[in-house]
Amino acid sequence: MMIERKKLAETVGESNLYDDEATLEAYSRDMSFANPTRPRFVVKPHTATEVKELVKLARETNTPLVPVSSGAPHFRGDTVPSTGGAVVVDLSEMKKIVFVDRARRVAMVEPGVTFGELIPVAREEGIRLNMPLLPRSTKSVVGSMLEREPVVMPSYQWDVSDPLACLEVVFGTGDDFRTGQAAGPGTVEEQWAVGGRQKAPYGPHVAAWHRLVQGAQGTMGIVTWASLRCELLPQVQEAFLVGSARLGPLLEMARWLIRLRLVNECFVLSGLDLAAVSAQARPGHLQRLRSALPAWTLFYVVAGYEYFPEERVAVNIKDISALGQRLGLEPVPALGGISARELMKTVQQPSGEPYWKLRYKGGCEDVLFLAPFDRLEVLTELVARLALEDGLTVGEYGVYIQPTVQGTSCHCEFNFFYDPDDAQDVLRVKRLVAAAVRSLLDAGAFFSRPYGEAAGIVMNRDAASLDILRRLKKIFDPAAVMNPGKLCF
Amino acid sequence: MALDKEIYAAFAGVVGEENICDDPALMPAYFFTDFAAVVLPKSTAEVQAVVRLCNQFRLQFRPICTGWTGFFRPGTVLLDLRRMDQIVEINEKNMYAVVEPYVTSAQLQAELFKRGLCTNLKGAGAQCSAMLRGHGHLDQSMGADDRNHLAVEWVTPDGELVRLGSLGSVGEWFSGDGPGPSLRSLISSVVPPSCTPGVFTKVAMKLYHWPGPTRYSLTGYSPRYLLAEKPPNMMARYYSFPTLDQMWQAEIKIGEAEIALELMGFNVAMVAANITTSNEEDEAMFKRLSQEVQGPGFFVIIAGNSPDDFAYKKKVLETIIAENEGMSLKSVEDPEIEGILLTQCTRISASVRETFRPGGNFKSIPIMGQRDLTIRWAVGAGQAKLPLIEQGLIADDGGGFFGWGVEHGHLGKTEIFCKFSPLNPEARKAVDAWAEQQSNRALEEKYFALTMGPPEQIDSKVGPALSNYHLWWYKVLATLDPNEVIPDKGVSKLHP
C-alpha cells in the first residue's frame, strides 16, 4: 500500500503536489555519485500541521518519505531516494523567519529559509550567523545545522551541535516534539508571553534530544522549525592571510589563535580552494589566481565590538604578531592578488554564482571528516599519494581545513573537482574517493557525517554504536518510513 | 539487606573480596539506605562484568563517582568508582583531557595549570568528579552543562561497552558525536551521571586556555589560605548596582564584550561565606557587606593573555560598570580578600562554606538556560524565602539568589537555595513547601519545569508540560535496560 495521490493533494493542496516527469527527474538525482531513483511524488508543505499529516499518512501506508529543505544543486546523495515509491517532502516553501532577537542573540526559522534570506534580517537587528564556508545560495539554514556542517568561527562553536539551539520535529511515529528549552512548559507562544526564547539546547531531562535529530539525514523525523544562536555584528574587523608551503606551521598558528580567542573567522585553504572561493566569473581568473598562491593559506579575522573596538583589534593584532614571530609566519593583508578584506566580505555571505565548488570544472565530490590537529599533515600526505597514483597532482584538488569546537578537532575536506561531461574524469574521481575513504578511515580520520556508499563502511566499524542507533530508530521511526536506506537504517 | 552468598561470590570474583562489602554495619556510612552491596570496580572491564551480573541476577544498580547527591532505594547495588581515578590523557594540542570517574576537578586542574590549561570545574566543588556535567564559576569563559564532553566510554545498562564518536570509529577521543545521530543525546544528563542509564567509565573533557599562574603561591593554613603574590594580569572585583535591571544590563554587556574569565552572580551572603572561616565570622561579614552594597551584584575575574589584553579588558569592565552605576565593593578591593576570592573562585574550593556550613543542609532549585527569564522567576522565589528567614527556619541571606552568564552570556544559570538545619523538622518541612510552591509556580507561569522530581510527579505534571518527553525517555530506557536494573526509570530524586 502506498499513499494515494488524492490523500496527498488533500493534505498539501493540489498546487503543491508534483508528479510530472520533469520534477520527478529533477529530484531523482543530485551532483553526487548516488544512484538515481525517481520519487513517486514531490510535495511542498507550507505548515507543520501538513508535515505531521504527511508523516502519519506515510506511516499508515508504509510510504518512504525523503525530506529536503535546501534547493538544488545537492551534493551528498542524502536527498536522493534510496528506494522506489518515495515521496519527497520539499520544505523549501516553509520560509518563515519566526523571530530574530538581538538581546538574546537567537533566531528562529523554518526549514525553507536560506542563508541569503536570514543574513540581512539578522544584520538589521545587529547580529549575524556563524555559518559554514560559502554555502550555496539555495542552502537552508536549518538543513546546514542538521547536517552538523562546520562553521567558520570556531571560537564561537562551544559544542559541535552549535549553532543549533532548539527544534521542533515530527518523528517517524507522527508525533511532534520540541527539544531543549522549547519543550515547555506550554507552547512556544506561551513561552514568548513570559519572555522565553527557545535558546537552551539541552534537555528536557537527561537527554539532549536535538543531538538525535542532527546528523540523522532525515531518518528520525522532519524538522519544522529550528532556533539558532547568533553572534554580535563586529564594529571593526581586520582580516589577514598567512601563506606557507607547509601546512604544519599554519595549523600551529590557527590552533593558538583559537586557543587564545584572538580571532573570529579562521580556516586554512589549499591554493586551488582559495582560488575557487575568490575567483570571479571571467575566463582564466581562477587559473591565474591559483598560479600566484602558495600551497596553503591561513585566513583569519580580528574583530572589535561595542567597547573600544579599535583598541581590541589593535591589542589582538599585537599579540598575534608576537605569535607569528614565534612561528616564523607573517600575516599580511593581501596575498597572491587576493585581498584579505575582500575574502572576508566573501565568506560572510553565501556563495555567488556559480557555486564555488563548481567553478573549476563544473563538478565536485567531497571527502570530509574530522581529525585532530596533529593528524592532518599525515592525512593530507596520504591523500596526495593516493591522488598521484591516479595521476592527480596536489594542486589539482582542493583542501579546506576548518578548526572546530574551539580547537578540539578539525573538519578536513578534500574537494575533488571533475568535469561532469568527461567520463574518464568522473571515473577517476569516483575511484579516488572510494580509495581515499578507506585509507583515511584506517589512518584515523573520523567520518562523523558519512554520506552515500561511505556510510556503510563507516557505520559498520562500530558495531556497539550501530546497535544502539538501530534500537533508537525503532522507537522514533518504527515503520522505517523516514528516508530509508540512509546511514545504517 | 545482604546478598545471597552465591551472588556475593560472583561479584567478589570480579572485583576481589577486598573490594566488595555487604556488611549492614558498614554500608550506611555511604548513604542513609540499605544497600544490597557496595562494589568497587577498578576498570571498565570490571564495571562491565558487574553490570552484567546485576542483569543476570536482576539487581538494580547505581554508580557514584565522587558522590554527593542521589537517592538510593534499599536493595540497590552501589558501584563505588573510587578506584577508577586515573587521568588517562591530557592532550594539549587538541585541548582535551580524558578522565576516569574518580578523578576530581582539583586533581585535574592542578595538572592542567602546569600546562597553561584549565577545565570548567562544577560549582559543587573541586572535590567532585571532573567528568560531571554541570555548571560552575568559570561558565562564562569555559562552557558548561553537557557541552564540555567529547568522546565517552559508556557501559550501557545491559552491560554493553559503547565508545561514542571518534572513540568507537578510530579509537581517539577528540569527538563524541556521530557517525550519524549523536549518542551523546542519551547520556548528557541534567543531573549527575549517577542518574543516567549505565556507567560512564572514561570521558574526554574539553579544555580551555588558562592565563593564570602554573600554581598559586599561598601562605597560611586551612581554612584560611592567603595568596602570597597576586598573579600578573588578573583582577577580582565585586560590583553592586542600584537595581536588578542595571545589574543584568552590566552582566549581559560583559558577556558580549567577552572580557570576563569569570562572572559569578554571588549575592553578598555567598561572598561572606567565601571569605570567612566560621559561622560567627560569616554572620558578621554578611551584615557588614550588606551595608556596603547598594543592591544586587556580581563577582568578576578578568585575566589577560598579555599586559595589553589585561589593560583593555579592565578598561571595558570599568566602563560597563560605570554606565550601569555599579559600585565596587571596597572589602573585595582589599588585596587579602581579593586574593582569597581569586584562588577560591577559580579552584572552586569554598562550595561547602556557601551551602552546608550555615545550617548543615540546604535545598536548592537550580535552573539552566535563559538567564533573564530565570532571574525574573528567582526574584519571586527569593521574596518567598523572607518569611522563613523571619521565623528563623533558614539562614539569613537576605532572600538572595545567584547565577551567571554561560558562554559569554549566551546561556545562563540561576540558582536559589535555603540553608537550614537537618535536625529541625519544622525547617525541613517549611523548606520543602517553599521548594514545591516555587517549582509549581515556575511551571504554571511557563518559566521552566524541574525534571528532577519524583517519578509520579514527572508522569502527572512535568512530562506532559514538556512535550511528553518522559514517554520518549521511558521507551529509550526500556530498550537500553531490558532487565530494569536502572532504578526509578532513570528519574532522579536529589533528596529522600
The H-level CATH homologous superfamily of the largest domain in chain A, spelled out, is: FAD-linked oxidases, C-terminal domain
Shape of chain A: globular
CATH topology of the largest domain in chain A: Vanillyl-alcohol Oxidase, Chain A, domain 3
Derived structural class of chain B: alpha+beta
DSSP helix fraction of chain A: 25-40%
- Mean pLDDT of chain B, to the nearest integer, reads 92
Q: Tell me the strand percentage band of chain B.
A: 15-25%
Shape of chain B: globular
Please, what is the average pLDDT of chain A?
A: 97
Rg of chain A from C-alpha positions? 22 Å
The appropriate CATH architecture of the largest domain in chain B is 2-Layer Sandwich
Major sheet of chain B: size, sense and barrel closure? 5 strands, antiparallel
What order do the strands of the largest sheet of chain B run in, or round the barrel if closed? 5-6-10-8-9
Key phrases:
heterodimer; A: 489 residues; alpha+beta; Uridine Diphospho-n-acetylenolpyruvylglucosamine Reductase, domain 3; Vanillyl-alcohol Oxidase, Chain A, domain 3; 2 domains; 6-stranded antiparallel beta sheet; 5-stranded antiparallel beta sheet; 19 strands; 20% strand; globular; B: 496 residues; Uridine Diphospho-n-acetylenolpyruvylglucosamine Reductase, domain 2; Alpha-Beta Plaits; 5 domains; 4-stranded mixed beta sheet; 18 helices; 20 strands
